[in-house]
Design a protein that fits this description.
This protein has about 300 residues and is α/β, with parallel strands linked by helices. It has one domain: 3-Layer(aba) Sandwich (Rossmann fold). About 35% of the residues lie in helices and about 20% in strands. The protein has ten helices and ten strands. An eight-stranded mixed beta sheet has the order 1-2-4-3-5-6-7-10, with helices on both faces. The chain has a two-stranded antiparallel ribbon with strand order 8-9. Strand 5, helix 6 and strand 6 form a beta-alpha-beta unit. The longest helix has 18 residues. It is globular. Keywords: Signal. Pfam families: DUF3530. This is AB hydrolase-1 domain-containing protein. InterPro entries: AB_hydrolase_fold (IPR029058), DUF3530 (IPR022529).
């Protein structure tokens, strides 16, 4: 009888050794951190071949990250720009990113091209959504770095995912230090995650915006052209009604098409570059010329009248 009771107890009592091992067999939850090893490999490779600019190490919270600072060569500082690369690229990517960071200094702009948080090569796009907060912290650290150099006129230039991360940071934080935002090849992937919904983010940005893309850009960029433009104009109407304006700060003050000043509207310019692909291959000079002219007009004191287009 005693043996039967023991046998029954064994049937209804969980076996400790088995239950402890069961969770290990389950799939591990996805990591929400950057791939630090990948960042380190890229940083080492870039340092070995870096010709223009200075490799610097910045800190965001407890995390260190790589960046390249290139001081203006003109002798007349127009301002500084933080350059944010796209998915699968880095701060010295030969297509677009390197030309931007090395050519703008020749025109009076000091550049800081930063390493954004990355995921492993096989990661799905949706896995990048968890990196947006980390990216925002890095952008804030980049701004502080430029300010430590005595630069007060600071803008963000982002390409593809970098543009989405920049738009997210500006929309959520309203940083007073940022005077302009250039989004290159901005797409829209709200089905993946709300933070990829660039048009929605543009509705909450009240500084000058340059939305520039190529006629042969990626599909998600081209299909959201109208949505981005309409979002910016909805934002303009909201700001106009709220009458948020400042006498000398360029951000909230714009002029209408006929040149007469109207308060509370944010400037927005959308430009399509004919023949350009997502990286503006072969058209980098034209892209940089457009960006330089826009930055000079809309973020410096040379022209206080801004056109809404």
């Amino acid at each position: 009888m005693r043996r039967k009771i023991i046998a029954l107890l064994l049937l209804i009592t969980p076996v400790t050794g088995f239950s402890a091992e069961t969770p290990a067999a389950a799939a591990e939850p996805p990591s929400f951190e950057t791939d630090s090893a990948k960042e380190q490999r890229w940083a080492e490779q870039i340092k070995e071949s870096l010709l223009d600019g200075e490799a610097v190490e910045l800190t965001a919270g407890s995390q260190k990250f790589f960046a390249i600072y290139t001081e203006e060569h003109l002798g007349a500082q127009l301002g500084g720009v933080v350059i944010l690369h796209g998915m699968g690229t880095h701060p010295d990517w030969p297509e677009m990113i390197q030309p931007l960071r090395t050519t703008l200094p020749e025109q009076g702009w000091s550049t800081l091209s930063i390493q954004l948080p990355v995921r492993p090569n096989n990661a799905a796009r949706k896995e990048y959504a968890s990196l947006f907060d980390d990216a925002g912290n890095r952008i804030a650290a980049a701004i502080a770095f430029l300010q430590s150099k005595g630069i007060k006129n600071i803008s963000l230039i982002g390409h593809s995912l970098g543009a989405a991360m920049a738009a997210d940071y500006i929309a959520r934080n309203k940083p007073k230090a940022i005077k302009g935002f250039v989004g290159i090849g901005m797409g829209e992937n709200r089905k993946i995650d709300p933070r990829f919904d660039t048009p929605a983010l543009l509705e909450h940005i009240d500084i000058p915006i340059l939305d520039i893309y190529g006629s042969h850009d990626q599909k998600n960029v081209l299909r959201s052209v109208t949505a981005r433009r309409l979002a910016a104009h909805r934002n303009a109407q909201v700001l106009k009604k709220s009458r948020r304006t400042s006498s000398f700060e360029l951000s909230p003050i714009v002029a209408s098409r006929d040149g007469s000043r109207k308060s509370g509207m944010v400037t927005y310019r959308q430009i399509e570059i004919a023949g350009a692909d997502h990286f503006f291959s072969g058209l980098e000079t034209h892209l940089i010329k457009r960006i330089h002219g826009w930055l000079e007009r809309h973020t410096t004191n040379k022209n206080r009248y801004i056109t809404v287009e």
